[in-house]
Every structure is written in C-alpha cells, then in structure tokens.
Amino acid sequence: MDRALLAQLNADRAAKVPVAVATNLKSGAQTLLYLYGKRGANGWPNQVAERARAVLVADKAETVETEDGPVFLNPFNPPLRLIAVGAVHITQALAPMASLAGYAVTVVDPRRTFATESRFPDVVLSNAWPDEAMAGLKPDLRTAVVTLTHDPKLDDPALDAALKSDAFYIGSLGSKKTHNARLERLRRAGFSDNELARIHGPVGLSIGAKSPAEIAISILAQMTQALRQEAA
Questions:
Q1: 20 to 30 A Cα–Cα from 137, which one of 105, 157, 158, 181?
Q2: What domains, with CATH codes, occur in the chain?
C-alpha cells in the first residue's frame, strides 16, 4: 500500500469512518471505498463499489470477480457501540448481552443511585445529562442508541441527538400510547415523520417478551436485524 493511501486509511479509521480497502489481486492496484460514496470507485468496476458497501454492512471481507481480475475487499469499520440511556433493570440485562455481541457499551444516567459500578460492572458509566453525554459520545454509523427510562426529561434529549446523528439503530421503551406521545413531542421539536420513523418504538422485536432479560433479548435481536439486514 502506498503512503498516501495508508495515510488516508489511518485518517479515516481515526475519524471512525467505515472504509474498505479494495485490492486487485492480479495487478496489485488498490483504492479506498466508502459506505456512502465519500469517494468514487476511481475507474474501478461498479460492482466493486457496490460490493464494498455490502462488505462494510456485513463487516466481512470477500473477493469479487471482475473482468480486470479478482478484487479483495477488506472492511475497516469503527467499533460497534451501544449507548443505553437509563440505568434500569432492562439495561442490566442488555449491557452484558451487547458486550458479548461485540458492542462497547456506555450507560448514561444522571441518577447516581441507579448508575453504579455495583449494578453495572465492566461497563462505562456516564452521569451526565443525556444531551451532554450524547454531544461527547457522537453516535455514528456503528452506534445503536436505546432509551429506557420512561422519563421524557431523559429520553427526549437523547432521542433528539440520536435523530440528528448517523446512528444505525434508535430504540425507545414504552407502550404504543407512550410512544405516540413521544412522537408528538418530537414533532413539536421540528422532526418530520420520515425522521421519526427511525425510532423503533415500542423497542425490540415483537416476541412476547415480559421479563427484563427477555426484553433485552428482543432489543439486541432488533439491533442485529438493523445492523445486518442490508447485507442480505
């Protein structure tokens, strides 16, 4: 890899930009390809650029056969992250499950009696208010945001920030009635129906979950669906 390409790759990784390295295994030529067309394929076959997006979504390398020879696509994705707003019972189950699935988990809750190391061992805790925490965490294309407090003072600022970000998944706990009221508040804050459609509410796949652990399973399953379904 030439120095300019390596420098750009390192810069992209530092900026947490999903990028794939395309290498023609016949000629040795290389280029960088992006999830959302930050740069074009620079004369490479269109199928390579198309497969690069799928490789980044699936987070799995593959070789594409082209008229110019086989091209190896190697994804370099930022780490998966979960920002969970609300140090509640569901979060206690969700945090270790998400960690096992490869997520770096941050639990945000200004209520210090809830967000404690004894309740959330080996998890990053933030006692900042959600709007402040989200400003620092900067959700990206590899980030899921889940709000679980039932308290608009905590959930709504987090959802506001999430909707303005590239988070791949946004979910919010609550009944259909609660969710409709939440959507109305966010509409008044200026969000369109298309933007609000990004919120999964009530959160989680509909599997009849009842207990905190079952609800956590449904949430992680829905996060996985949102992360992987584009690669299908």
A1: 181
A2: 3-76 (no CATH), 81-231 (3.40.50.720)
